[in-house]
Amino acid sequence: MKPIESISRRSFIKTTGAAVGGSMVAASPILSFAARRQGNEKMRIGLVGTGVRGVAMFGRDLLREYGEYVDLVGICDQNPGRLQVAHDYIEPDGPAFTDLDEMLTETRPEWLIVTSWDWEHHNNIITGLEHGCHIICEKPLTIDEEKAEMILEAEKKYNRQIIVTFNYRWVPHRSKLKELLMEETIGDITAVEFHWHITHDHLKRYMQRWHGERNRGGTLWVHKATHHFDLMNWWLDSDPVEVYAHADLERFGPKGPYRGVNCRNCAYTDQCPYYWDITQNDHLRRLYTDNEHYDGYIRDNCVFRKQIDIYDKHSAVIKYANNVYVNYSLTGDSNYEGFWIAFNGTKGRIEGKEGGWHGDGSGQEWRMQLIGQEPETIFVPRAEGGHWGGDPLMMDKLFKDQDQPDPLQLSAGTRDGVMSIMVGIAARKSAESGQPIRIADLTSVKPQAKRPRG
Ligand SMILES: NC(=O)c1ccc[n+]([C@@H]2O[C@H](COP(=O)([O-])OP(=O)(O)OC[C@H]3O[C@@H](n4cnc5c(N)ncnc54)[C@H](O)[C@@H]3O)[C@@H](O)[C@H]2O)c1
Questions:
Q1: Domain boundaries along the sequence of the chain
Q2: What is the Cα–Cα distance from 47 to 52, expressed in whole angstroms?
Q3: Is the pLDDT of residue 191 over 90?
Q4: At what angle do helices 386-395 and 172-182 cross, to 10 degrees?
């Protein structure tokens, strides 16, 4: 294990991006992966945000699976305790920093991976761009329309690439649906029913953390449903134009029957259905509870704390620029984890679901019925790897060979990142105002009947 060469012990520095001023590195073209291999060069990568996501998928797993293609030249987290644990866990090729600006200046990565808090993504992206980095950003791109505009402006100004890691697209069952729709198998799509469910346990994890506060995660309309709206924009190959929605918080936050400070010291552990002892999980204890004193970040907050101001049930009607109507719901406190979806087209219908339904677990199906014909089943074998087999495929493309052909348009950029959160932001505003919200009133990206790639 390498020692931490340069953990900055400065007090936490707000990375506003604007404070840095000016491009640090002259723009250079992205090196093709063929050229990179010829020159035997690895991708130089920096990582900001060493929570569970950063240390695993884009930290230790990245180096284990793609170590021959990448060097992790620096890692950054504003919590020095978590950073130390992350450095021990990941064993990166370079040092650790509590200040992003300092990391980028000293280690000069070509790519910056952003796995920090949702409401900090825009700051980290802009700082990375200012230093001449290309960006790989976790979803959601950001949480509101003002921050989205800041990212779009910076992307134009610094002319670098921003990739949003919509790993949900890469799941083989879902990319098979994309293929069927691209082939116009059911003709022109007219209407879609799309219903997503999160189990009690899954929702609890959101309510216990920063995700429960709208100014941090943008509500589940953005934090979670960005995945769903991205899938829908991609499947339909069109942009959303208007959203009308309802949402409510019925069981959590101020609606709860009792409350404590957090699970560990709560007087209601015997009766609370959401009780969870984080200290039983060594990895989480070392990363989070042992380092709370640095920044007050609590992972097992009370799910009934009064600050919770997101929703636990959501329903929206989305109109697309190609005149498709989508009926969407996100039921956040359910016994079921997964989704059910149906596309209705001029030549027939495709429907399917994901969740604990697929019998022996060997794969998943789509059921298609063309008008006047017998129904048929399209079986997609189960794929290995995280997020239903999608993660390894996306990681191969990102880190092994970005020049891989992409006929199903699986890669996503800023435009896709923006358009997916815009549906959620519009839904949030609609649910709160009682009015339908037009996407064109929220973003400089113009909705188009056939959406351009990116
Ligand atoms: N694609 C997926 O399916 C998926 C799954 C899980 C998480 N995510 C995303 O990954 C991101 C991280 O999630 P997580 O669960 O690890 O969160 P987390 O809260 O556990 O960790 C985030 C880390 O970022 C650090 N941080 C925040 N802002 C920072 C800044 N400005 N500078 C330096 N460090 C900063 C925090 O100290 C913390 O250690 C989130 O955006 C989340 O939405 C995506």
A1: 171-252+309-382+412-441, 260-295
A2: 13
A3: yes
A4: 70
Give 294: exposed, middle or buried? Use CB within 10 Å, 0-12, 13-18, 19+: middle
Q: What is the pLDDT of residues 367-423, one digit of tens each?
A: 999 999 999 999 999 888 888 889 999 999 999 998 999 999 999 999 999 999 999
Amino acid identity at 309? D
Evaluate: CB of 78 within 6 angstroms of ligand 1. yes
Contact 207, 348 (CB under 8 A): no
CA 35 – CA 285 distance, rounded (Å): 43
Distance CA 392, CA 65 (A): 9
Chain-centre distance for alpha carbon 445 = 20
| pLDDT classification of 171: cutoffs 50, 70, 90 | very high
Q: Nearest to residue 247, comparing CAs of 22, 433, 109?
A: 433
pTM (2 d.p.): 0.93
Tokens 């990179």 locate to 36
Domain 171-252+309-382+412-441 has CATH 3.90.245.10: no
* Torsion angle in degrees (nearest 10) through CA of 43, 46, 49, 54: 30
Stated length of the chain: 454
Q: What is the pLDDT of residues 81-113, one digit of tens each?
A: 999 999 999 999 999 999 999 999 999 999 999
> Atom 3 (ligand 1): residue with closest C-alpha?
167
CB distance 52 to ligand 1 below 6 Å: yes
Residue 24 is given by DSSP the state S
Pocket test for ligand 1, best of 47, 82, 115, 231 (most atoms within 8 A of CB): 115
Place of tokens 């794929």: 383
